[in-house]
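Worked problem 6 (solution included).
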Amino acid sequence: MRRFARQLALVVALGLLPSVGYGVSNFDRHPVQARLVLDDDDIGAGDTLTAAIVLTMDDHWHTYWEFSGDAGLPTKIEWDLPDGMTAGPIQWAGPTRYVEAGDLTVFGYADEVSLLTSLTLADTAAFGRPTSPAELTARVSWLVCAEICIPGDTTLTVDLADPASGLIDPGIIAEGSTHLSLPWTTGEDLISWEPTVRATNSGQLDVTVELASSDTMGGMPDLYPIEPVGTFIEGNRRRPIPGGAEVGFSVVPYAGEDLPASVEIVLAARSADDQIQYRRAEFDLTRSHVDLFATDYAAAQTGRSLWVYLIMALVGGLILNLMPCVLPVISLKVMALVSQTGESPARVRQLGLAFCGGVLATFLLLAVVVIAIKSTGELIGWGFQFQSPIFIISLGALVFVLGLSLFGVVTFRLPGDTGQLGGLADQEGLVGSFANGILATILATPCTAPFLGTALGFAFSQPAMTTLLIFTVTGIGMALPYALLAWHPGWTRLLPKPGPWMERFKQAMGFLLMATTVWLLWVLGRQLGMEAVIWTTAFFLCLAVAATLVGQWLDLRSTPVRRRLVWAISLVIVVGAYLWLIHPLVSEPLPIGDRSASAQQEDGWQDFDRTEVESLIGEGRTVFIDFTANWCWTCKVNERIVLADERVITAFREGNVALIKADWTHRQPDITQMLHAFGRPGVPLYVIFSGGRAEDPIVLPEVITADLVIDALDQSVGSSD
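Solution. The predicted structure is:
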């Protein structure tokens, strides 16, 4: 449509320009001069002579080739010939690439060009050099452009019985013939080329051709497509690559037209003597790549009722409590419930509902963030915040300090409440319980529980109110067990009685939080490298020093001056450590898709590359894609237990399966788009593309088993036969 609009505007502009006198008062003479030249004037029955329309352009002006590109119009020649004489098609000289109006790529000629035409006299005609008038008339029209475009036309006539002086010039014809394109032959040294054709969901074909010229050639090779009938070509981009150039364009059918089976191209390379040589070739527009984004794999879900997704969200939120991500905080909540067995029912309800409020508030905040980011056109997914190193470091610092508090190093009292953060005292406060709900939800975001992936995937693609509703129901599902316990305090009697074991349990939970800290440091190392782990560990050490100062040097008998001094020293230690150790790590944005050397894939697995995956599917290979992230515990468990199972590895090997690992640890737009195409908000996701079939992939659930993977592979082999 964009090219059509440009051409329409050009036609309208040309219609407003008078053709007589070339219609532009600012020019004393037209920037194009035309003349007619013949290679001979002696012609008999069955003979052919060659005529050339020679267009000479002023400096900085150019006319157009048979396919003008994104704008412009090709030169036209209409012949009026003696009886028995016919004219062949224009033999176009090879073009040159120009850029107009900043971003329009056009093909044409500057300085001078000879457009050749063969004129043939029928066998039945009977005259050699005519003695009576035998006029050849060529009506030539063109468009010439520089900063503006000017149409031009002229009528050129010659009488073969009395040719004008200078009309016969075989040298010009011979020179013009050297600029014509010869047929390209396989394996010739001049230029080699390899096309790639990708079908898209918009009904067009995207074509990319890699060109490589001989070592004896100079300059960057080029390619000029010729527009097939019923289509238009747009794009016309070229960029250098090692050893040559890459040219891309799109073949777009007009409404109601079919895509062509092939496209004709002209290849160009500059020889060592600075002469451009042209080759004409044709290739089939057979799809050699598939477009992974051409299919909406989640379309089958659109027929489900909203109630189905709400039930999935509720069940998925409930299952989140069993995921390894939240076990450290859930264990603290269990300990708090044990300590509350002697409390009044009203107090137990208050603390339980405060925890539920923290869970719901965090889910609502996540929904608002998702809606806000979606409104900018950005694609995000569940757990997107774990792609930020500063979030990983902040969460690690919080979990580390909570672990220190469980070991008795420090106790933090929250303002406005008599309780302590994390349920670490015998009397858990309302604010502390609310904070526990927040922390439990944050730690749950790297996990995608069964049913939850489908529900949240639907939520990420829906309007704001639907997104908010599904996130809210997910939060209700996660908070439901604690709401039930809060509403029925008597059920807490089923838990173990308070006693000395609670101190040992608290310390065990401290080690679990420290293990969580180690995991977060490992995730950070996969994002920023080992040096970042060292500096962040040093920062945590400074946090431990500051926490020790507060925990050991302050008590209820401390004077206000002592309190202010100790807190000031601790704050200086923390802020100074951040500025010295952490700020240099996060001050520069992490490049999209950047991967450290430690994050390279294991043997047999390839990094996700959209073009490579499309090529593998186009070649007929069966492809298994593991959408994963280093911060996803479910992903890591599946990889260590299921995908590393010897039976699964054997099935991969016997099926010649291409193994692709789509690592979403960093922000990867292509991976995010693929997840959304499958209606999933995040990882894990496991997809099998049967050999050569991109339209009907097999999607596995979030939690997989070896038998499930093997059965799916067997099914993919059967479907590709």
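Discussion: The chain has four domains: 2-179, 183-284, 299-586, 601-720.
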